[in-house]
Write a structure and sequence with these properties.
This protein is α/β, with parallel strands linked by helices. 30% of the residues lie in helices and 27% in strands. It has two domains: 2-121 and 263-322, Quinone Oxidoreductase, Chain A, domain 1 (Alpha-Beta Complex), CATH 3.90.180; 125-259, NAD(P)-binding Rossmann-like Domain (Rossmann fold, 3-Layer(aba) Sandwich).
Length: 323
């Protein structure tokens, strides 16, 4: 099979090269997927530059989400059959013609979605569900503040929050992105380049949950934005991971500060999360309420161009490789 490898193990986008490897064979509890499309995510950029190595046992090939058909089924797998249309969350191995995955981390593609749309779902939907709804405890009628609202995670979070009956305050950089977030359903959409974020968030009533992908530069903003009993969930730190925080304010407002990564979670935990996502979030996908936009697609052999497109930060939604 063809895969994308990182020349010399780490480097710029130009280091991404087509290579050939043996087709994987599924073991007990595993399936292989004939990959038709693979999502491109920011953790892939970090892995390419040497900052996010795969967890033990995972493929060193990048790619955390794919869509395609079941190619082969290992022992003890009863749900899936060869030819089933599926998408899956991976620990690695998505930038390839065939992906090996724990059968419990596979979900059916809802009717009406093509492979490109389906490949844009697993990493983002799982991440938003785990962090906004489980860790953040977002409920109908509450307000979610999303920073980086036009990223792949951000556009999914807007749609999932609205599907759950919550209000959304979105921040993004530039008038076009603010308009895109509003079109996706954000109740208040702010331009971080021109708006006074603190004043506008306060005018909107503050937030019960903050989904933070910015990190250090928005620490003070988040403390001010959260209502009493609010939850601040960190899933990335694009401006830095170290921030000075007044712990007394966390105490007085009864705030919860938490965060997580998805890739390193144990297989059993990912299986539990997959079942929860299928029960709660997959009906939103099937109904069309959650349908993250795809900004651009690239052939597998042009993975370097896909990484460059993601690095610019100009995208709204997802970037997907077609295999």
């Amino acid at each position: 099979m063809r895969v994308i490898e990182i020349e010399n193990g780490a480097g710029p986008a130009e280091a991404l090269k087509i290579a050939e490897r043996p087709d994987p064979a599924p073991g007990a509890g595993q399936v292989t997927i004939r990959v038709r499309a693979a999502g491109v995510n920011r953790p892939d950029l970090l892995q390419r530059t040497g900052g996010y190595p795969p967890p033990p046992g995972a493929s060193d090939v990048m790619g955390l989400e794919v869509a395609g058909e079941i190619a082969a089924v290992g022992a003890n797998v009863t749900r899936w059959r060869v030819g089933d249309r599926v998408c899956a969350l991976l620990g690695g191995g998505g930038y390839a013609e065939t992906a090996l995955v724990d059968a419990r981390h596979v979900l059916p593609i809802p009717d009406g979605l093509d492979y490109v749309q389906a490949a844009a779902l697993p990493e983002t939907v799982f991440t938003v569900f785990a962090n906004v709804f489980e860790a953040g405890g977002l409920k109908a009628g509450q307000t979610l503040l999303i920073h980086g609202a036009t990223s792949g995670i951000g556009v999914t979070a807007i749609q999932m929050a609205k599907a759950a009956g919550a209000r959304v305050i979105a921040t993004s950089r530039g008038a076009e992105k603010a308009a895109a977030a509003r079109a996706l359903g954000a109740d208040v959409s702010l331009d971080a380049k021109t708006d006074d974020l603190a004043a506008e968030i306060a005018k909107a009533g503050g937030a019960d949950v903050v989904l933070d992908m910015v990190g250090r530069d928005y620490a003070e903003l988040n403390l001010n934005a959260l209502k009493a009993g609010g939850r601040w969930v960190v899933i990335a730190s694009l401006t830095g991971s170290r921030a000075e925080i007044d712990l007394m304010r966390i105490m007085l407002k009864r705030l919860v500060l938490t965060g997580s990564t998805l890739r390193s979670r144990p297989a059993d935990e990912k299986a539990r999360l997959a079942a929860a996502v299928e029960a709660t979030a997959w009906p939103w996908v099937a109904s069309g309420a959650v349908r993250p936009p795809v900004q651009a697609t690239f052939p597998l052999e042009h993975a370097a161009d896909a990484h460059r497109a993601l690095e610019t930060g100009d995208h709204v939604g997802k970037i997907v490789l077609i295999v």
